[in-house]
Write a structure and sequence with these properties.
The protein is α+β, with helices and mostly antiparallel strands and 1430 residues long. The strands form 10 sheets. The chain has a 5-stranded mixed β-sheet, sandwiched between helices. It has a 5-stranded mixed barrel with strand order 20-21-22-24-23. Helix 14 crosses helix 17.
Length: 1430
Amino acid sequence: MGDFIDREAELDSDEDIELAGEQYDEETGEVRRKSAKNAGKPRAEFDDSSEEEDDDDDEEAARIREGFIVDDEEDEEEELEDGTMVKVKKKKKRRRSQREEDEDDGLDEEDLDLMMENTGHARSKQSQFKRLKRGREESRRGRAEDRGLMDIFSDEELDDGGDDDDGNRRREGRDRRGLVDEFDDFIEESESEDEGGRRIGSDDDMQFGGASRKRGQRGLDPEGLGLREGAMADMQDIFSIDDYEDALVTEKDNAELEERTQDLQLKDVFEPSELAERLLTDEDNDIRWKDIPERLQLMRKPFANLTLTPEEHLEEAKLIAGGLAVRKNLDRRLEGPFREAVAKVLQLFNVENYEVPFIYQQRKDYLIHTVKIPRRDVREGEAAYDLDNEKMIFEKDLWEILEQDLKFRAFVEKRNHFKKIYEGLLESGVDSDMIVEERLQKSENTDHMQDLHEYVHFKYASQIKDIALINANGRKTTHRKPGSSKSIFERIRAGRVYNVVRAFGITAEHFSTNALLNKKREFPEDPEELPQVLAEQHVDPPEFLTGPSVLSAAKAMLAEEIYTNPMMRLAMRQKWFTTALIHVDVTEKGVKQIDEQHQYYEFKYLRNLNLPQIAQQAPMFLKMLKAETDGLIKLNVVLQDQSKFFKTLYNFIITDNYSEVAEAWNRERREVVDIVMLKFAKLFEKNLRDELKNACEDLVARSINEVFSRKLDQAPYKPKALELGEIPRVFALSNGQGEPGRDAIVGVFFDEDKNYIEQIKVDDLREPEKQEKLVTALRKNRPDVIGIAGFSVRTHRLAEDLRKLIDEHNILVADEGDEDERTPIEVVYVNDEVARLYQNSDRAKVDHPDLPPLGRYCCALARYLQNPLLEYAALGKDIVVLAFHPAQNLLPEERLRKALDSAMVDMVNLVGVDINEAIRKPYIANLLPYVCGLGPRKTTSLLKTIGMNGGKISNRQELIGITEREGAHINAAVGPKVFENCASFLTIPHSPKERDSDYFDGTRVHPEEYELGRKMAADAMDLDEEDVSDIVRDQGKGAVVNILVKDHVDRLNELILEEYAEELERNFNQKKRATLEAIRGELMSPYEELRAKFLKLSVEEVFTMLTGETKESLDEGMVVPVNIRRVTDRYVMARLDCGIDGNVAFEELADDANHKPSNYYSIGQTVQARIESLSRKTFYAELSLKEDKIRQRRRRLVDVPQEDWDDEREERDRARMAVRNQEQARTVRVIKHPLFKTYNSRQAEEFLSGQSRGDTVIRPSSNGPDHIAVTWKVSDGIYQHLDVLELDKKNEFTVGRTLRVGQKYSYSDLDELIVNHVKAMAKKVDELSNNSKFQAGSTEDTAKWLEKYCEANPKRSSYAFCLDPKKPGYFLLLFKAGAAAKMGVWPVKVIPGAFQLRGTAYPNVITLCNGFKTMHQHMMESANGRSRGH
């Protein structure tokens, strides 16, 4: 049983990766190859190793006899594509393992005989090899008997080399007994530590010790042989045993081992999920090396095999330009130029493979429409006309065009697929279908193609099946039985019933034409017989045996023909998407939960909502869908004037005849219309929801993009003395929560190079000596600005104290010139959304290991002041955690990331990246994935290649492997196309001292325009070609530009660029007007800072940052709980939960308290108060405790027209709920405790949703006056509600002296209950959640993981824990004893200080795991015993 109980339950992660005799060590990153000895041992049914058995015992014995050399491994570091260094085991020649050395690698038979004879000892003549072989066989038999149930869920691998002492002892035990002791290793063994903290007695130490033994100590005991000390060493020297071992390694062995090592690939070492996370799959490598921008490859991945024809390119440009022009409300005179511009952009995307930033900055001339306006009075030397430039396409439009291009490709792909089906029908002999021909020409989106697809598959179902059979068999050798595998409609069409369908007198095509034209063009004809009579005449056994069944089938057939007709679909789609209305029908659950303060109240009784209204309120519609998912409302989609529309459709299908037959057939025709419209209602209700959802998600994503773009569009904070874009020196400080005596004030200094200088810490800024300490630090480090932020309202008081200190000590900005002109250092509130994520992150611990979390928080504040863009880029995938929009949690994460990434791409390419600085600093390298043409995959390749080339780029040409250095050879870091995209956004600051340094490498000018820029420089200085040639020959090709920039930059303004642009367009068909202006601008100011000034937080933003409250959550007129802090005869001071102080004037006290407030209120008491006024700037509120005001809660106003709000339904529901509440009314209880809230269970959960695990709310209980409810947070979305019974109460308003939970646990007061019950359970939840066996996903996710694991390792067993969302306070233990076994699930209850499994309590996770395994083993043994008994 020793292998059944794991030696240490936490060390289970090793199980996860075993690959064909190799293991991946997750701690060291090494690949371990299984020992040859272990590989040969048999496995039991539930063996937890994935190695295959090696039954070739004879071969193994031969290896031992012949001194066969076995493989060993050594660590070598290999660099992955993402730059990560991992250790990989490399095979090398070694002498055989320790056990082999012990058994047959020492002295041979003759040597031992001679030695024993000389020492006077006898020696057994039994063959040593036979002993070795017998011992192996006995060990195998013992192993086969031991393994099985005892190895289920074993967390450790089998001993690989047998080098550790435990392993040797176990083998010896097996040799002697053949069966290991049942209780061997049953109890967990802890590892002791020496004084230095090193482990003693661990398996690793034993293995290390075994591997490093001296050769003189191998296998033989000198004392047991009667030898003197050192005799063994002398004999080894005499016989030179070690001298011959290395000679046994042959060249053939080396070649075999090298070949095996070379075959080792990353996918042999890492799990596929890990490779995908590191972007190292084969697909990632294809993207990495393909010379197309990474983002374009990912976007076009679904359409990789689609190539658009020239006609399709024109069609696409027309469609996209038309849609964009309508949305942009474009002037009609620009429609032609706009279409040309869109066509050019699509060509740049699809043919040239350029990304959005490149097109926007380097092809901007094609996005601008220029008109020449002749001048009336033209002076000599002046231009004869003015230019009217109008920008038609902006950067956001380019992203929209790219998105529309993907949608068009999806449409073309679907159309091509349909054409293939239709052409197959024509080839099979089907006549051309005019409906298909016409609609195929006019189809513009995937919906139209879906209509045609369903029409063809309905009408030609049999033919399509026949074609599929022919294609499947290669020739038509298989004949289907008549009627076999046919649908009901195919059988109707081929049978007698279809005559009744024809008798309706109008075809589906004719009725659809009437509906599409909204005019009765086609008229039906009545048959001579009644419908029932005709139906009886066309019964069609065996399915349609009666007249009614025939008539029903005929109506269903005609309805289906109408429903699938593309023209009818088009008519109905136009109707539904223009006249549909949405009504909100609140459910009973919604009536109870959605009150006037609820976020869903704005649409609780909404009705008559049309599509344009929804487009203006996109977040609200997404909330509606979420509320419907939660079961609070139901959305009903109906047609406007539906009854009138139905009458119109009836008129299109009935005849105008007046007879009994005509009336009977008209009734049947109306029923057909009803069937059709019911089908369309289901279809278009779903289509409408999907279309509206997508449109609303696009609108919300666009808003998120705009918000994030504004946050990114901030230059570093600019003091008066610095230029825009220069980095300031920053001092950032915070007092955290600001608790006096607990939270100190921590500040950090950062210099202008963004380097951390020092930290300062003071306890109280109001103490003179602490003030002096801070003033000294400020004068020493001379910051340009002081940034401040925190987690509570006390930060506002700190800011006021700091401003006062600066004024009193006259601390000024250091570099502003004369002292008279210098200004005091400004104290600025800093947006801390990034800092809150950074302070406890792994990145922060690596960046600043010596700083406390609050110090790291301040570091992030300082860097945000210096460059917000870098701080947001450093978040990586965590960027989605930040709040950009109230409805962002309703977006799919992929859609949210897409919106954020496009904003980041735009801003990074506007600012540019210093490539050499990015190579040196990972913090700067975070920007590279957003550079045009690059991405995370290409970035890792770029950095790795530059590192191989020397770690520095001298000019942009070196990125593609071109260097002017003599004798130098460098590798290309990017391909030509990617270089075109990224070159102008990767900057290399110009160094005049270096001859190879090019001024343009530090500008936004693209390398393709360098010669154009140099010609402009020469023209500005009036240099002819000969002068330029001399200068270039003497000083280098960039010398002309250097001279211009240094001495003659003003001459650039004298250039008339329009004439030059006309010449380029006339001679080379290149539009360059805007490009020439951009080159002039870069020559005058390279990479000028184009971002807006640093955004200071508004009063509202500061208020939200320090309180967590918004205008929606805290505003005047709201009733909130307050805690009384001071009571006087004139007023009462109170504090809101968010930390705001409030005052209750004497006249606003409760009516009964007007005589003496202290008789009614006490310090620490929690009461309900109404906010009369709220100052968000000073964090101060005026409150009222009057009962009449508290009862008059602020009603949330909904700004909708009266006719769009169902007042009658609201009044009915309110009256009904009032009666119900009155029946359930009870005295609202108030308990004097800081955790007490007058919440119900839902409100308590909402309050705790943003809190940490273990946080608690004490609230009134619905079980009676002698009960209290305690709600605590188990995990995100999981809350446990404890029912606390109060015993020994003085009266119904006091808390009982004894508090009992679950009839088992008793406590003397609430604080003891919270600490010893709730916190103790929360600690246990933390303990199990941090264990390696815990899975963070849902129960289904954990089950899937377990299934997948056991499929990959069929002979192994495993188990995992996950939280039980249905039973808060419980975990689920899921286990599988092998791939073929059923999934087992046992509940694990969390109790104070322990875990309870099947009635047994375990104090920690290790004992819980061992207890589970013991229980499972006993169950399996009992089951096996019963089965043997039978």
